[in-house]
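=== Structure Prediction Worksheet ===
Name of assembly: unnamed complex
Input type: mixed (protein and possibly other molecules)
Chain count: two
Listed entries:
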Amino acid sequence: MRAPAVHAGIDLGGTSIHAAAVQAGTILAEAGCKTATGREPEAVVEQIAGLVDELRQAVGDATPLEGVCVGAPGGVDPVAGIVHHAPNLGWSDFRLADALTARTKLPVVVENDVTLGAIGEHVYGAGRGTRHLVALFVGTGVGGALVVNGAPLRGFRGGAGEVGHLVAIPGGRVCGCGRSGCFEAYASRTAMEAMIRERMAEGRKSVVPKIMKKKGKSRMSSSVFEAALDRRDPLMTEVLAEAQSHLATLVANLVNTVDPEMVVFGGGLVARLGARFVDPIARQARPAFLIQEGAERIRIVPAELGDHSATIGAAVVAVQRLGG
Amino acid sequence: MRAPAVHAGIDLGGTSIHAAAVQAGTILAEAGCKTATGREPEAVVEQIAGLVDELRQAVGDATPLEGVCVGAPGGVDPVAGIVHHAPNLGWSDFRLADALTARTKLPVVVENDVTLGAIGEHVYGAGRGTRHLVALFVGTGVGGALVVNGAPLRGFRGGAGEVGHLVAIPGGRVCGCGRSGCFEAYASRTAMEAMIRERMAEGRKSVVPKIMKKKGKSRMSSSVFEAALDRRDPLMTEVLAEAQSHLATLVANLVNTVDPEMVVFGGGLVARLGARFVDPIARQARPAFLIQEGAERIRIVPAELGDHSATIGAAVVAVQRLGG
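=== Predicted Assembly ===
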């Protein structure tokens, strides 16, 4: 029996690109970079190809990379390898798989990044062995993916799992999607940052600007959130609690819809805050499950693979589609 | 090849019981009665057995009933034939299948009534040939059921599809489930009746009481709703429009979660109002689908089997579990 194949899993984001050489769920090597300013498809393909080269050299000739799976932030055609619509990259209908194969001489498959995160957690992370799973990723947006009967649910048009756009408050805050009152407009990292800025503009005090300056950050990164919480900043604590309260309603909505065994939270902020992020959500969500019998058996937990959910999930999909 | 088996499908509600002898999706005979006052399990079993006898006589000896499937309004154990929890009947942990088999000498299976309604519409009604389907039944409550990859989704604890208890308005109207702001608290027939009564108590005028008196009804039945709408009663029109607006949000929430090919609306009120009930919901829901590509291919329609969704679905389940 030969050793399991090694694939490159790529987590392509609007801000940064993470790459990992993965063998049977284990990361052999990592590489990464900031996404090219402008995010032109050709420049980004060049960046990904460079990361794949780095991984190749890191794992050596004894275990060659057999293929690549890229997780893109948006709608994809997984069969044709096309990124249809990725607002955070400004891409539409880009034939990513063809372009990257031309450059790397490797077979390339493409999938939605959140779907890959859910698959990573389902196969190798917190959700191992679950039959029905909901994954929620909190970051620039609130992304979601569902695993039903052991397989990712895509839906009729590939539109399943867009649960950040369920309605939290009818006619509420304007969301990045252009609609009003979506959960994403209250509970994404971006939304929390906006709410903190708005309340400071109204005269509220916060240590956040000082922390950002000290860390040399222009945005409220996960590390800024954590530092402000560690210093018990009232405004940060309040905004996080509001986001958690909305996420509790979202969790209850999803439990009352699909009744999963597990709701797993991922993304950079969750990787950093862990139980401090998830436990208050779980506490508030549970009383809102319509069926209380057996409710304690539904686990609400942080992702186990941290920042690697999507790259490891990408390698799982590479094995499924390319063999290995 | 022998003819397809004939089964008795029973739709057991808190108000009435409908029964039908069904062969391959076709109703051969019907029977029904008001649910016994008090709803004691033994009395209700006697009633169902009586209806089964009526059906037997109606279909004759040439096509004997081969089994019974009862749809109960609540949580069931379909394998053991137990009704665990049926608030509208006041039942808990009643071994319905055993009791009814003892009385009818027929094999009996039990299922949730809303699940049966969805199965009926999926196999023989509006949803024929769909892979992913959401069914919503508007009545005493707002019940839901999901078909995913061609099969009903039960979830981890049998709790999937309880979408009437997604949150419409955080902290809003008190729901029958004891929580606040559920869609059911705004959009069930019961909720609409309550809102009309509240607004009349505040001094609003309506033709509804006059219509109820004329029809000899103590509750606002579907026929009362229809008569008031036909007479363009402003209060009835307003309350229905509010319910439809909430149901549009619920539909969008479900499309953004599971991306079905079809959302089918059933229940007595929908059977009566048809497109007048469903079309305004569809119009308001569509702009709130996150993914607009292909959105026009998602059908939002009234049930085709009318009041028979659940009895026909019951016969489908009888065939699946008992053979035929």
